[in-house]
Amino acid sequence: MAERGSTGDQLHGPRITPTSGEGATAELMRARRGGRLSDLDRLLLHSPPVAEGWNALMGALRSGTTLPADLRELVILRVAVLNDAVFEWTAHEPIGRRSGLTDVQLQLLRLPDPSRGPGWTPVQAAVLAFTDASTRDVAVPDAVFTAVREHLDDRQVVELVTTVAGYAMVSRFLVALEVPPPDGEVAG
């Protein structure tokens, strides 16, 4: 994963100027984020309807699912690696650590095929293989899907698929607009 995105060494801010963060939608986003807006939020606020929908979806994925926190963060961090989204990695690495991911696991996530490496539980390995297939190829092979089904119920499968898709969306937004990484974790 490159330091500042795949489009070169950006030492400047995002490609468009963040908004001032005013209005009802900004307040909804602040509420989810514990009172602060990130640069990502300020960019989304150029389109309040998009920002509102984004806020609702990401809030649900972060705090309204039954997917265990370690699996959620495993997905988010792996998508960040696959899509070269430094902001996403920087914002979620501390959350991943708190959810139980180890230094070794965080290093393995940066490898071409981490699911084959040691250090994963069977469900973590299945989720990693699913994340890679869905992010790289969109279509998920039957064997990869079956491996996930051995560990997750219907609701958790839906939540897994949506988390992979949701954070693919986040990473594409961040990378396309060259949003610089935050100083650390981004709440909410």
Describe the structure.
59% of the residues lie in helices and 0% in strands. The chain has 188 residues and is mainly alpha-helical. The protein has 2 domains: 24-63, no CATH class; 69-176, Up-down Bundle (AhpD-like). Helix 4 runs parallel beside helix 7 (122-137). It is globular. Residues 1-25 are annotated as: Disordered.
Biggest sheet character: none
Q: Quick one: CATH superfamily of the largest domain? A: AhpD-like
- What is the 3D shape? globular
CATH topology of the largest domain: AhpD-like
InterPro entries: AhpD-like, CMD-like
Protein name: Alkylhydroperoxidase AhpD family core domain-containing protein
Region (Disordered): 1-25
Pfam families: CMD
Feature tags:
188 residues; mainly alpha; AhpD-like; 9 helices; 0% strand; globular; disordered N terminus
In short:
It contains 9 helices and no strands.
Detail the topology: elements first, then pairings.
Blueprint: H1 24-32, H2 39-44, H3 48-63, H4 69-82, H5 86-98, H6 103-108, H7 122-137, H8 142-149, H9 154-176
